[in-house]
Every structure is written in structure tokens, then in C-alpha cells.
Amino acid sequence: MKKIAVFTSGGDSPGMNACIRAVVRAAIYNQVEVLGIRRGYAGMILGDFVPLDREGVQGIINRGGTILGSARSAEFMTPEGRQKAFEQLQAAGVDGVVVIGGDGSFKGATVFMEEHPEIPFVGIPGTIDNDLYGTDYTLGYDTAINTALEAIDKIRDTAEAYNRLFFVEVMGRDAGFIALRSGIAGGAEAILVPEVETDIPLLIQQIGEYHEKHKHSCIIVVAEGDDAGGAFELAKQVQDKVPYEESRVTVLGHIQRGGTPTCADRVLAAQMGIGAVEALLANKRGIMIGVQHKQVVEVPFEQSTKHNIEISPSLKKVAHILSAI
Amino acid sequence: MKKIAVFTSGGDSPGMNACIRAVVRAAIYNQVEVLGIRRGYAGMILGDFVPLDREGVQGIINRGGTILGSARSAEFMTPEGRQKAFEQLQAAGVDGVVVIGGDGSFKGATVFMEEHPEIPFVGIPGTIDNDLYGTDYTLGYDTAINTALEAIDKIRDTAEAYNRLFFVEVMGRDAGFIALRSGIAGGAEAILVPEVETDIPLLIQQIGEYHEKHKHSCIIVVAEGDDAGGAFELAKQVQDKVPYEESRVTVLGHIQRGGTPTCADRVLAAQMGIGAVEALLANKRGIMIGVQHKQVVEVPFEQSTKHNIEISPSLKKVAHILSAI
Amino acid sequence: MKKIAVFTSGGDSPGMNACIRAVVRAAIYNQVEVLGIRRGYAGMILGDFVPLDREGVQGIINRGGTILGSARSAEFMTPEGRQKAFEQLQAAGVDGVVVIGGDGSFKGATVFMEEHPEIPFVGIPGTIDNDLYGTDYTLGYDTAINTALEAIDKIRDTAEAYNRLFFVEVMGRDAGFIALRSGIAGGAEAILVPEVETDIPLLIQQIGEYHEKHKHSCIIVVAEGDDAGGAFELAKQVQDKVPYEESRVTVLGHIQRGGTPTCADRVLAAQMGIGAVEALLANKRGIMIGVQHKQVVEVPFEQSTKHNIEISPSLKKVAHILSAI
Amino acid sequence: MKKIAVFTSGGDSPGMNACIRAVVRAAIYNQVEVLGIRRGYAGMILGDFVPLDREGVQGIINRGGTILGSARSAEFMTPEGRQKAFEQLQAAGVDGVVVIGGDGSFKGATVFMEEHPEIPFVGIPGTIDNDLYGTDYTLGYDTAINTALEAIDKIRDTAEAYNRLFFVEVMGRDAGFIALRSGIAGGAEAILVPEVETDIPLLIQQIGEYHEKHKHSCIIVVAEGDDAGGAFELAKQVQDKVPYEESRVTVLGHIQRGGTPTCADRVLAAQMGIGAVEALLANKRGIMIGVQHKQVVEVPFEQSTKHNIEISPSLKKVAHILSAI
Asked: Where does ATP bind (chains A, B, C, D) (predicted)?
């Protein structure tokens, strides 16, 4: 292993830059050269490569986004596209690849390796959604829940001033992790997640009872992928049937993808970046580097993308006991 | 002047609590008692008063929202409602009132004083919109622009990762101050404000040229009251006619009203709170306390609510020169 | 179990208020009354109790410090003091106690229970130091490392402008956890912890080589309890023997104890608060509620306070590979 | 004016990067080329220049520090040094220079222009100290006071938990502006500034009375240049003579120079950067660009560095009324 490549793929998440830095530094530590691939699989096909050394990753540890960019690539879905990507990597002398991304990125790598077993891929779970099996936390998740929480805190200020009802939509198309943790931490009166069927009539009844008893503001945190629909849809169904004079909707959107990564995300980035380089050096392939119980672990791609991660019953209970309603 | 009342009214803004604290401490300093009126003019009509002393305003200097609450009051729009409010104030022995709020709150106070000249009102401009004449800054504006800016910074991270086009809607129904300052500070590629007619075809052309030349992400900051409509409406008209593959819309909404007040807002709260108490003690009435050029000034309510504040030509030029397009 | 008491003890840490709230809400959920004890064991001896209900813990979830206060108590170290405390608890009808604190607080509770087995204590690890055995994280640690990290980020800005050498001292009298994580996340060039003997001549040599090779700023993060002494002592021994023109010392101090708790700390507060109430209801005693691998666990006091927690070899390796020198 | 140079000098301050960006963009807008001078006057003497275009200032608007670096230069204090600097500028074809810095930087420029009138200098007040005459605010001041305030807020959390006495030292060698504003905004119980003689016996008496009456924590904010000495010195003189059981000292130090610039600082950077370029184009020289009452103004260097700026009597009164003691 003389030269490896690293790239970011899929939705960007805070900590990706810190992770690129860790990959580069760990490689240098092991006398391995590093190429950065710009704009994901699309850039791989085009051979859009840039050599990365210590100076190249200087000053990025605390920056959101990804200096390598990301993109979707329809072409990589085709054997021809993957063939081109393979040729570009070979031409550049790449012996192994670190892919920082999610579910889809790992599936792409798996198909690639079936066709081109010469070049091993190792994955790092970079996604704010925390929806990959085999790691306690994905890279960016801790920052995203803190961003969501700061927004909920601010909304509480104004909600409380008016005793208003707020619907706050956080990210999470298939998974309610962001909603659940930011909602518990923000003292949300209710938390709606895709993993649990939403009972609108019950919710309406509970909001009514809560208003009756406590006269305070009420914040409902909703994952974007909840079965009841997003926050706007939910508000439409609820607001005229509850005693609050006014309700408001906030959709946090892409601010959850940005921002300076938290300490936890940067430490995760460091552990995973080093773990990925060491795995390649140990001739591993097709695995995701996870962190479980603070220890670095290796999880086969197929396992990691199975997506059958369940909401923790313990946290569900916490939400149930602490929510107001 | 033995006893004064203080209340918050209209949309809440960060710094209101610091201002309530300043009013109470300044009153105590001058041996004057203070009553807090809960929930604005509505609470005034109901006599929902609470004595405020040092302990009562302990620990609130850095908290968003307002401990006194706010509300709309249709009843106060009627002579009967104002008569009730007057009776409640008289019964409680109130000699003067400090109202922290905006435009509408000062107009309400003006009508009240015409009917009940016995009780003088002095106003403090508490609104994030910075749309009151006679003060360099309104209370909460500095916090709101920093909140908007933090969001724009986060969005830049993810926009840049994908070279995406973003439309970010900030508050400002009639005034573009939040959009202009947060947009300049966030390096927005274009800033759309109600005060300037938006030329959509020109905007489309400029976005196209910008993409052609620079290949970077593009962030358009839009005031909610812009004549082109909000961010969603704008995106609908623009996104298919520009070369960006993807565009995204973010509506910041009520997070702009919350949060810990900035240093500037807390100093403003201190200056204005003391200024209001001193004005009442000096038998002033019907004036708003402003701060101009760092000095406390007094501005008649009629002047302050004229609303003919123009966007600074100097800042418009700054935005023109620094925006990318 | 009809009535429980809760108090905070030892050095305060962010998340204590969120935890008090969780204890109160979990108790109410289980039809149990709650008394708050003010100012730790000192207040227990004086019977300084306050009933806590939902309203009493309203709006504190995001506030640093502790609404119950904390204090040292020499008197509780004596059998007479503990006897008084016991009588106060009995007189107030307290059936069980939740103590949120560290090492010393649990030892105090252990001695108390030996003398007065009638009243069971359950502990929650509230300390920024992360130095209790049996829990992945203590309450307040995540906030503290983020506070330290923010400071290091700011110092990097100015250090880089001048290519300066900085010594940054973070908290940690016996444990280097804060230094290690904030140092890794801040990209520190070296991290000095009590658990590893500091080799000053080697450090001087490494700083020299680093300056020679990279010409960048250099930040050394030092735990206050490092064997080389704190940051001032270290700077004295190092600064004249390295090629940097200027060095600066920053001691972060008590800002690391304050601030709004992070999302992780608030979720921990929720899990631990509920866990403690449920443990008392299940007739447990003398145990600390920890969270391991995201699951709530119960750890006997004696185990938790053994203090033989080692720095993770994995993180030490990470620091070694990523540090510049 | 075909080519201008820009550099940062003296202590760095947040907003310098945003200002460099504004200078570059304003120059490009006016078809003028820009050179960046690295490491202040020292780099000028060495001809350490780098061309700056749009890409070169991409992504720096929100970053603390200065991409151009800063340094002290003993050599520039000599005619020979200035002669070398002049030759370097001439050789590079520089027609005018923008210097972003403080007092000393402007004095250096003044002497330079006396000897080498061929090259005009225009200044931008970049310093956190707010101690330049002729501008309402200097660049970086608003960020610095918010950084100090955040620290005071965190210290209040832990001070309040223990009813402790804290001495917090903020920057300000000759000027108390940071102490005054952050102290007022942080609700400090006393604020000590260089401009007002500190009466230690009176302070001791007031702290005693405050403790007697209110039993709360007590935070004393001290400017580093206060006549009583810094926070450590003050604590030594005070702590044994007041009724607080414990006192703590925090010296905020260089964290006040770093961090993402606030919205106000970035708008100031934009206005001043453009103003400086326009002044050079209008053949102005030897002036500092200030902002007064939101308008860009030009102030001769001699005036700006006179240093006879007084603490606002209005703010002194505010501090007097609102402080606890």
C-alpha cells in the first residue's frame, strides 16, 4: 500500500474535514501517499484528483462541509461508469480507497469491488442520520443534534413568551434519532418519529389536556420522515382542534448539515480516520470503521447498510416519561 | 412617581428580560416601586400584575424571551378595553408605565394617553426588525442578525460541498435590515429586500453568469416581505432557469426571535431601561427612548412610528460591491 | 417510597439542572413527591429543603449551574453532622435520596448509609472530570470538553496569526480526559496528562523540530494536574529553550464548569435521572446510575469511586499519530 | 492607482479576514490589482507578497485570525528598514497601501509617508481594544466583548452554585471598554477600568455589604490595565477581607482575540474595506477609515492615535446604577 485515495460522498456532514485530515495524517505517519478525490464518485470517474499533504489539510479540523466536495453520480450506477473510475484510480496508482459517506456510498463501493477486486475500499460512516448499523454514532450526528437543540432552545424562548404551540421539523427521512435526542434534550412536549406510528387524534387530545393543565408553550418535534407527514402537514391536521390560539411551524432544514463539528464528532473523525488507514494497511476491504463502546470496530458493508436499526427502547421510555403529554 | 409598571408587548425580542431587569434596578435605585404587567395590554386589562424586586429579576439578564409574556389584545383596541386597563392601573397605584415593544404598542399607548392623561407612558423599542425611527438600533436586532448569520454560515458549509443554490428567508415583513446586514456578513451572492423592487429576470441572468464564472455555491438571502414573495415563491420562479443542478430553500423563522442576547443588545437594554425610568421621573411622556451615536435620546412616539426609515444607501452600495453577482 | 429528596454536591457541572428536572418528572410520573435539598450536605444538616414540582423545574433544562446550589460541608464528615442530617431527612418524611455529584459525594453517602440504613441513597455521576468508574461518560463532561475546545479554536486563530507557541491549561486534577479529547479535537501539537509522565527535554526537542519543519503555531494542551505542573510552570521550563519568538499561557479555569449543557449531557441527565428514581423504587441503594454503551446500568458506589480509570490506549494512540510532534 | 497592497499589523482581531476580503473585492470592482503582504511590516521589508484575487479570499469571511499573519518589526522602526520596505513596494509596483491595525501601525505608516511620500497609506482600525479616536467601533471589538460576555455568563453559572466571589480579567491595557461593556452585559457586581482610580477599601466595604444583603455570587470584572493591578493582584488584596468563603480568579486572555467575527464586525469590515479602497482611489492618504453613526468617515492618522478617548459618562452611570454594589 503506497498510495491511497480518500473522498466524501452522499449528504455532507460536520466532521468530514476533520476526518480527511486524520486520514491524511495517519497515512503520512505510515509513509503512505494520499490523493483526494473531488466531488465523490463523479470526480472519481473524471479523475478529479488532488494530492493531499499536511499543508493541504491544515486549518480544516474545525470547518463544516467538506473541502473535497460531494455530488451524486448517475454514471457510477452503470458498469461503464465504474470501469472508467477504476481506470482513473489505476492510472493514478491508487492502491486503496477510503470512502466517507453513508448507506448508498457503501453500496456503490461494494458493487465496484465485485467488478474490480484489485482496489479495496474501506468506509467511514459520515452522515448526520445515525442510521448505519455497527457504530454507536455516525460522523456528524452529534453536531447535528446540537444544532437542532440550539434551535429548539431559541424557539422555546419565543414560544414561552406567547404560550404558543410550535411544530419543529428536524432531519431524518427514515430514522428518528435526531428528533428523539434533540427532542428529549429540548424538553419537547411530544416527539414524532418514523419508527412509531403517529396517532393524530391521541396527539390532539394530549395537547388539549396539556394546555388545560399547564398553560405553557408546547413544542412538538417531528422527524421529516414521520408517517404523519412533516411539520406543515401535521400543523394543518392539528392546529384547529387544539386550544392554543396560535401555532407556528419551523423547518430547520440544511442548517443541520453545517457548522463547526463538536468535540465528540472530531474525536470520532480522528479515531475513524486512523482506523480506516490501518484497516487498508492490514489488507482489509469492504468494511466500515465504526466506534462501539468507545472502541474502534470493523463492520462488513453488508451489515452496516442493513438499516434495521431500532430506536432504543430506553430512549423511547425516557421521552415518554419526560414529555409533558 | 412612587410606583411604575413595566410590560412587554408585540413580538418578543432578545434583550427584553435584560431590559426589564434594568428598569427594575433603575427604579429601585430611585426609590420607586415596580409592578410587572403580564401578557401585555391583555394582562393590563385583567390586572394581571406582579411586584418586581431585585430577586424577581435575578438571573434573567442572559435569557431570551420575556418573563412577563406578551400577547395580542383586541380588547385594548376599544375605548372600553382601555378604560378597564386604566382602572386596573389606578387601582394598583401606578404612576407611570414603561412599554417595551414596537410600532403597534406605541400607538396603543398614544391613544390610551389621549383618553387617560393621568398616566404617562414611556416606550422602549423592543423588536428585532430595527424599523423604528429615532434609534440607531432596536432591542433584539443585533441578536437576531447574529442568529441569522450563524444559520447562513452553516448553510454555506453544505452549499459549498455541493455547489448548490440556496434561498434563505430571514425575518422582515416591511423592512430589509435583517436581510441586508446578515446577507453582507454572510457573503450572500444576492440580497433581496422589500425596499428595493426585485427584478427576477435580471436575478436569473446574474445567477447564471455567476455560476459560469465561479462555479461556487450561491446563497440568496430574502427578507420575508420582499416584493418577489418569500424564499419558496422565489425558488419556484428561479430554479429551473439557472444552471445549478439543485436548489434548496431554508426559512429561518422564529429561531430569530430567541436566544441569549448579545453584548450590544444587553448594553442597549441597560441604557434604555435606565433612560425610561429617568424620563418618567422627569415627567416625560409619549416618548420612545432611543440610542443614537451611543447616546440616549428621547423621541416622540409619533416620530418613532412613522416607519419611513430607509435602507442606508451606504449599506446598499456595500452589498452591491461585495455580492458576487 | 412516597417522598424522595434530590441534591447536588461537589463541583457543579453542566446538566445538573436538566438532571434535577428529570428526577422530579420521573418521580411525579411514579406518584412520588420530591424535596430539593439546597447547598449539598451542608443544607441537609440544616434542613434547607424546598418542595419541587413541575413548575419548580420549569425552564431549567438548558441552564448551567444548579438551582439547588452546592457547598462543602466539614460538618458532614463527622458522625454528629450525619446524625443531624438523618434527623432532618426523617423529619421531612424522606424515604430515599438521589445525590448528583462525584467521588466524595458518593463516599459521604456510603458512610451515611452505614450509620443510617433506613434511608437509601442512589447516585448520579455529576462531574466534568469523567473520572468515575462504571459509566462511559459523567454528567457535564461533554459540555466541558466542548467549552475547552471552543477556547482552543479561538486561540488557534490568534496563535496562527503570529506563529506563536501557546500553553493552554484545561481542568483535570487527577485525570487527563478533558485534555486528551479537547486536545485531539483542537488539533493540539502536544497533550500532557497526569496519567503519562511528562518528559520535558523530549518535549523541548519535539517543539524545536516541529517549528523547524512546519513554521506553524504550536498549541500544547496541559491538564492542570499534569506532573510537569500547570501551564505557567511548563511555560517557564520550556519557552526559552524553543525557537518560538513568543509564547503565551491561557488557563481556562471555571468557564469549563458553566454554560448551557450539550445535547449529549441533557440526554444523559434524562436517562440518569429516571434511572435513579426507578432504582430507589426498586429498593436499590448504594449504587451509581451509569450509562454504558447507551444503556443505563447500576454500579456499586465502592466500584465507581475506585478511581483506577485508565486513559484509553486507543485515544493515546490517536493523539500520538495526529499530534504534530 | 493600478495596484494596491493590503496587510494586517499589530495584535490580530476578529474581522481582519472579512476586511481583507472586502478590500480585495472592492479593488477588483474598481479594476485594481491587490497584493497581500504577509506578516506585517516585517514581511513588507522582505517583500513577502502574495497576489490576492477572488479565489484567494474565498471562504475566509467567517474565520478569526488573519490569513496574512502579523508580526512585530523592530527593523521598520529604523529609516533603513523603511527604505527597504519602500523599495520592495516599488519593485512590486504598489501604488497605495491599506494597513489594518492599531495605533502603532498607523504611526509607522505616518513616518513611512514622511520619508516616502510616493506611496500613500490608508488605515483601517483593526483592534479589539476600541481605543482609536474617530470611529464608533474598531474592528474586532464587538466580537471580543461577546467572547468576554460568554465567559462571564458561564462563570456566573458556577459562581451562583457556590455563592462565590470571582475576579474576571478581560483585555484592555490602557482602555476599559471591553471591561465596561462586557461587565454591564454580564451583570457584574463591580467593574474596574484603567480610566477610573480603584479604591480598594471602598470595594472591600461594598462587597461586604452586598454579601450581607443579597447572599448571591459576586463577579468583579477587571481590565488588565486597571491601576489596582490585574485580577490576581486584586484578589490577593481583597479576598481575605470580605465575607465570601471562597474566591476564584479567571484571566480570559487570548481567547478574546479569536473566534468567528460577529455580524456587526463583518459589516464594519465590509464598510471599512470598501472605504479604504475608495479613499486610495480618491488620492487620500494618511487617514483612518472610521464608522461614525453608521456612516463611513475619514480621520487623519494623527487624530485617530491621540488616545484621549474617554469612557462614556453615560455608560459609567449605567454601570453604577446596575451594578449591585
From this structure: 11, 72-73, 102-105
Phi first, then psi, for residue C76 (nearest 5°) are -70, -15
Q: What is the DSSP code (8-state) at residue B139?
A: B
Q: What is the mean pLDDT for each group of 10 consecutive residues in chain C (325 residues)?
A: 96 97 97 97 98 95 96 95 98 98 96 98 96 94 98 96 94 93 96 93 94 91 94 95 93 96 98 98 98 94 79 87 75
Beta strand A218-223 pairing with A287-292: unpaired
> Would you state the cell numbers that stand for residue B164, as one nine-digit string?
448548490
The pLDDT value recorded for residue D307 is 62
Asked if C147 and C121 count as a contact pair (C-beta separation under 8 A), the reply is no
Give the minimum alpha-carbon distance from D80 to chain B in angstroms, rounded to a whole number.
Answer: 39
User: Which pLDDT does position D152 carry in this prediction?
Assistant: 98
**Measured between CB atoms, does B187 come within 8 Å of chain D?**
yes
Domain ranges, ordered by start, for chain B: 3-140+261-304, 143-258
Q: Residues D129, D142, D226, D265: which is the catalytic one?
A: D129
* B154 contacts chain D (CB < 8 A): no
Give percent of chain A above pLDDT 70: 98
Chains contacting chain B through 3 or more C-beta pairs under 8 A: A, D
| Nearest-10 crossing angle of helices A141-162, A177-185 | 50
Which residue among B148, B156, B270 places its CB closest to the CB of D318? B270
Question: Which positions in chain D touch C253 (Cβ < 8 Å)?
Answer: 248-251
> pLDDT per residue over A205-248, tens digit each?
999 999 998 878 999 999 999 999 999 999 999 999 999 988 99
Domain B3-140+261-304 shares a fold with domain B143-258: yes
Rounded Cα distance, C185 and C172, in Å? 17
Contact A289, A123 (CB under 8 A): yes
Class of domain C142-257: alpha beta
Overall fold of domain B143-258 = Rossmann fold (3.40.50)
Instruction: Please identify which of the residues C12, C95, C129, C226 carries the catalytic annotation.
Output: C129
Neighbour count for residue A322 (Cβ, 10 Å): 26
- Please name the CATH architecture into which domain A3-140+261-304 falls: 3-Layer(aba) Sandwich (3.40)
Beta carbons of A165 and A247 less than 8 angstroms apart: yes
Report the amino acid identity of residue B179. A
Instruction: For residue B53, count other CB atoms closer than 10 A to its CB.
Output: 13
CA Rg value for chain C: 22
* Cβ neighbours for A115, distance < 8 A, ≥ 6 positions apart: A79, A82, A83, A86
Question: A21 contacts in C (CB within 8 Å)?
Answer: 187
Tell me if B23 is assigned to a ligand binding site.
yes
Count interface pairs A-B at CB distance under 8 A: 105
Cell of C48: 434547607
Question: Is D142 an annotated catalytic residue?
Answer: no
- CA-derived radius of gyration, chain A: 22
Task: Confirm if A8 and A104 have CB atoms less than 8 A apart.
Answer: no
Interface partners of chain D (CB pairs < 8 Å, 3 or more) are B, C
SS3 C125: strand
Under the banding of pLDDT at 50, 70 and 90, the label for residue A312 is confident
| Nine cell digits for residue C96 | 430515599
- Which DSSP category does A254 fall into? G
Look at residue C33 in the predicted model and tell me its pLDDT.
Answer: 98
User: Concatenated DSSP letters for A191-206?
Assistant: EE-TTS---HHHHHHH
CATH class for the region spanning A142-256: alpha beta
